[in-house]
């Protein structure tokens, strides 16, 4: 049975299999060794993710096998400001941490050997959000700010440390590049192809740190170049 890598998150995860997406890049990276399973839910915060995690993971693995890894990527919606257009998605920061804790605990109980990788909320380009307002918000104010998203990123990192889980600080990573606002974010929140590439590279690096790479997962079937054309059944183990 092929190993699985599961991506659990909000719209940035849901859209990760689009052209140039970080999930699609992962599927291509591990195309001969593992299946990448998408569990992305646009608009979700951790409060709603906590309620659906059991159902979301139902059917991910059969026969008792555990995924090699699960990425948990929420917080962009939790970090909507409570007094602006995205207020219905806002989750207070302490509840955000508690929800992440519950989600990770569930995953660990289900699959004790699975690597759980937390990903912080991304940075916010407030100018981009003003040009792409949430819903019918005409207040002239962004429903998210980078400072507020940063507080949730720090809370995610703290929770990862408390729970001894690996974490990708994409909030800080993206901002280490000049011009990140327009290079990495298409609308102040969601990723451009370059933004997707940054996250893909960070996920691959974190997986490798945890012993999951092309070198450590065996190829499921021989490469064409390795097949004995005179006796292909022998090459394929039949």
Short description:
This protein is α/β, with parallel strands linked by helices. It is built from 10 helices and 5 strands, in the order βααβαβαβααβαααα.
| CATH level-1 class | Alpha Beta
Number of strands: 5
The helix content, as a percent range, equals 40-55%
The CATH topology corresponds to Rossmann fold
Q: How would the global form be characterised?
A: globular
Structure in words:
It holds the Pfam family Lipase_GDSL. Keywords: Hydrolase. One of its GO terms (molecular function) is hydrolase activity, acting on ester bonds. This is SGNH hydrolase-type esterase domain-containing protein. Helix 2 (22-29) packs across helix 9 (193-209) and helix 3 (46-57) packs parallel to helix 4. The protein has one domain: 3-Layer(aba) Sandwich (Rossmann fold), CATH 3.40.50. The protein contains 10 helices and 5 strands, in the order E-H-H-E-H-E-H-E-H-H-E-H-H-H-H. The protein is α/β, with parallel strands linked by helices. Helix 4 (93-110) links the parallel strand 3 (69-73) and strand 4 (115-119). The protein has a 5-stranded parallel beta sheet with strand order 2-1-3-4-5, sandwiched between helices. The longest helix is centred in the middle third of the chain and has 18 residues, at 93-110. It is globular, with a radius of gyration of 19 Å.
Topology:
Layout: E1 4-9, H1 11-14, H2 22-29, E2 35-40, H3 46-57, E3 69-73, H4 93-110, E4 115-119, H5 126-131, H6 146-163, E5 167-168, H7 170-175, H8 180-184, H9 193-209, H10 232-235
Parallel strand pairs: 1-2, 1-3, 3-4, 4-5
């Amino acid at each position: 049975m092929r190993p699985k890598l599961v991506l659990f998150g909000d719209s940035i995860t849901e859209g990760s299999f689009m052209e140039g997406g970080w999930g699609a890049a992962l599927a291509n990276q591990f195309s001969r060794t593992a299946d990448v399973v998408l569990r992305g839910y646009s608009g979700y915060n951790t409060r709603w993710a906590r309620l659906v995690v059991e159902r979301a993971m139902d059917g991910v693995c059969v026969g008792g096998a555990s995924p090699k890894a699960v990425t948990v990527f929420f917080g962009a919606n939790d970090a909507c400001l409570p007094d602006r257009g995205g207020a219905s998605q806002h989750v207070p920061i302490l509840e955000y941490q508690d929800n992440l804790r519950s989600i990770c605990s569930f995953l660990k109980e289900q699959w004790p050997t699975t690597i759980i990788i937390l990903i912080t909320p991304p940075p916010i380009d407030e100018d981009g959000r003003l040009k792409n307002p949430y819903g019918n918000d005409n207040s002239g104010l962004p429903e998210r700010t980078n400072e507020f998203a940063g507080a949730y990123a720090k809370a995610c990192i703290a929770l990862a440390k408390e729970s001894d889980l690996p974490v990708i600080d994409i909030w800080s990573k993206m901002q280490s590049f000049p011009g990140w606002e327009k290079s990495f974010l298409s609308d102040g929140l969601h990723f451009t192809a370059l933004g997707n590439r940054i996250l893909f590279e960070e996920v691959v690096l974190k997986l490798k740190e945890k012993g999951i790479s092309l070198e450590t997962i065996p190829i499921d079937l021989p490469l064409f170049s390795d097949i004995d054309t005179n006796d292909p059944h022998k090459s394929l183990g039949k």
